[in-house]
């Protein structure tokens, strides 16, 4: 079996783009250039500062254009997690008289764990369910929202299944209650067309590393009239909504990534979808005891989450990784074995499939060769993984 060593580096087959994406060459070049030469502080009154401030302004305009928002309504942050925290804290302050919130049962941990924290602060948080395809049960959500609801926060697309939620429909429900509406669009901005308008969220989070930008930079769209209480207190950056010297290279890189995404997504998405479908059909034709999640739902073009019956996903991921194949699983390893993902549990995925979920997520850099490589190796890998039931039998991926 090929093993990674200095002389024989493994060829990486990267199919884990919902975790993060490869920065594009233009982004790497922009970040490197700004880091090397445009080191002024954007708040400084001299020429070096002015140049840096111009770069930040230009990037903000590019990001704003990507989502059809006014540039001044974008708060640049350190990424999706900070944006989500900023948004939800702002939403709780927007309606201080209300102590109730609604999220979906399949939110990302940034929303789930913050809401767990809010519960300890006296908030009541209800969770709207999803159906077996991972679609939001909008009727369920509508029944939970009341005139005491401070905010509703839902994903635009789920990171594990790629299933897209009907934001406009939910916006109508939320608006009539007077609550604040946050959309976690980290998996969609820069990947599919996302426009803010009167039918979208009041607040919308996004993250550059999900669309071939740098890590550690992202943003929050804030609808005019919604006030933001900063999480970070200090200087007057970001119109007093987020203090701290701007990450100029990262922000410039995000701007470049946003521009490329805006100009290329209509062209690349059909190609990505075609490759994803090739992978999906290949899996379904090779295995009888497999379920692909969300195939009947509105789904991101890049995601294929396949659940293999009676397979330990961690074992399969490690065996795949030995061949250079990078994918992921919602299941988490714990001392008691594999913990199933809350997303799959909420969807009611039957027990034999619950711990065998492998998420493949593609990007514009994915190739037919990568997909065929995976399809050729999977039968043997799944057969070997089926003989490994406990994590103790595994050799972890060396780091
Ligand atoms: C849906 C969703 N929300 C939020 C985040 C957090 O974003 P970041 O990694 O930029 O902090 C992620 C990252 O995986 C995500 O998939």
What structural class do you assign from the helix and strand content?
alpha/beta
Name the average pLDDT: 95
Report strand order across the widest sheet. 2-8-7-6-5-3-4
Query: Could you give the distance between the termini?
Result: 19 Å
* Radius of gyration based on Cα positions: 22 Å
How many H/I helices?
12
What would the principal axes of the Cα set say about the shape?
A: globular
Element string (H = helix, E = strand): EHHEHEHEHEHEEEHHEEHEEEHHEH
Molecules bound to protein? pyridoxal-5'-phosphate
As a percent range, the share of strand residues is 15-25%
Record field, number of beta strands: 14
The main sheet comes to:
7 strands, mixed
Percent helix, as a range, is 25-40%
Instruction: Give the low-confidence spans.
Output: none
Question: What does this 3D model show about the protein?
Answer:
α8 packs across α12. Helices cover 40% and strands 15% of the residues. It has 399 residues and is of the alpha/beta class. β3, α4 and β4 form a beta-alpha-beta unit. The protein contains twelve helices and 14 strands. It has a seven-stranded mixed β-sheet, with helices on both faces. The protein binds pyridoxal-5'-phosphate.
């Amino acid at each position: 079996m090929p093993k990674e060593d200095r002389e024989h580096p493994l060829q990486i087959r990267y199919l884990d783009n919902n975790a993060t994406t490869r920065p594009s060459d233009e982004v790497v070049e922009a970040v490197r250039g700004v880091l090397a030469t445009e080191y002024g502080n954007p708040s400084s009154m001299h020429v070096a500062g002015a140049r840096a401030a111009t770069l930040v302004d230009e990037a903000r305009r590019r990001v704003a254009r990507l989502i059809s928002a006014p540039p001044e309504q974008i708060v640049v942050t350190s990424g999706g997690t900070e944006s989500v925290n900023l948004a939800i804290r702002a939403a709780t302050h927007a309606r201080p008289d209300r102590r109730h919130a609604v999220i979906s049962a399949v939110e990302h941990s940034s929303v789930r764990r913050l809401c767990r924290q809010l519960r300890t602060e006296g908030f009541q948080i209800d969770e709207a369910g999803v159906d077996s395809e991972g679609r939001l049960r909008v009727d369920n959500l509508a029944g939970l929202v009341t005139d005491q609801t401070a905010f509703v926060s839902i994903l635009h697309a789920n990171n594990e299944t790629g299933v897209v939620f009907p934001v406009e429909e939910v916006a109508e429900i939320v608006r009539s209650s007077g609550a604040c509406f946050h959309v976690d669009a980290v998996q969609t901005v820069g990947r599919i067309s996302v426009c803010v308008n009167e039918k979208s969220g009041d607040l919308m989070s996004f993250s550059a590393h999900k669309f071939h930008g740098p890590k550690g930079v992202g943003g929050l769209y804030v609808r005019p009239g919604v006030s933001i209480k900063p999480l970070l207190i200090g200087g007057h950056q970001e119109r007093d909504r987020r203090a701290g010297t701007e990450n100029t290279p990262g922000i410039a890189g995000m701007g470049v990534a946003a521009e490329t995404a805006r100009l290329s997504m209509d062209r690349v998405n059909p190609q990505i979808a075609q490759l994803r479908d090739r992978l999906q059909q290949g899996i379904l034709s090779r295995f009888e005891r497999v379920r692909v999640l969300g195939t009947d739902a509105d789904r991101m073009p890049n995601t294929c989450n396949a659940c293999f019956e009676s397979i330990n996903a961690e074992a399969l991921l490690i065996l795949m990784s030995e061949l250079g194949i990078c994918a992921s699983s919602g299941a988490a390893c714990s001392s008691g074995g594999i913990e199933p993902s809350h997303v799959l549990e909420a969807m009611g995925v039957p027990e034999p499939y619950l711990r065998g979920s492998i998420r493949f997520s593609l990007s514009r850099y994915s190739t037919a060769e990568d997909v065929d490589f995976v399809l050729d190796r999977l039968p043997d890998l799944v057969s070997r993984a089926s003989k490994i039931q406990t994590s103790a039998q595994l050799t972890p991926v060396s780091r």
